[in-house]
Specification:
This protein is an alpha+beta fold and 113 residues long. It has 2 helices and 6 strands. It has a single domain, classed as Conserved Hypothetical Protein Mth637, Chain: A, CATH 3.30.1200. Strands 1, 2, 3, 4, 5 and 6 form a 6-stranded mixed beta sheet that branches.
Length: 113
């Protein structure tokens, strides 16, 4: 199992370790960054805008409501821990999206792995 995510069956949630890069041209998954999944966010890191865009992006990419996503640690840091309520099917969906690096516009980016 990869260190950047963990599924907790007792709490019925997925826990992610993310490295967030604010200020990107468009939001999207950008592969692994050490033991975290790198996510580029098309919002500045001021006034909590990047955190809001991160929640919106994850909600859209995973097909879950924004209310199902909670920022547990790292509100003011690039390294964040996010909890997403849902079933184990989220694990495979997220792994697929992270490997294929789907942008917020649905365009597939060629994987370098």
């Amino acid at each position: 199992m990869s260190p950047w995510y963990r599924y907790d069956p007792a709490r019925h949630c997925l826990v992610l370790t993310l490295h967030v890069q604010p200020g990107a041209r468009k939001s999207g998954f950008a592969g692994l960054h050490g033991d975290a999944l790198k996510v580029r966010i098309a919002a500045p890191a001021t006034d909590n805008q990047a955190n809001g865009e991160l929640v919106r992006f994850l909600s859209e990419a995973l097909g879950v409501p924004k209310a199902a996503i909670a920022l547990k640690r790292g509100a003011t840091s690039r390294r964040k821990v996010v909890e997403i309520a849902g079933g184990p099917e989220l694990v495979e969906l997220l792994r697929s999206l992270a490997v294929n690096r789907v942008t917020s516009h649905g365009a597939r980016v060629t994987s370098s792995t």
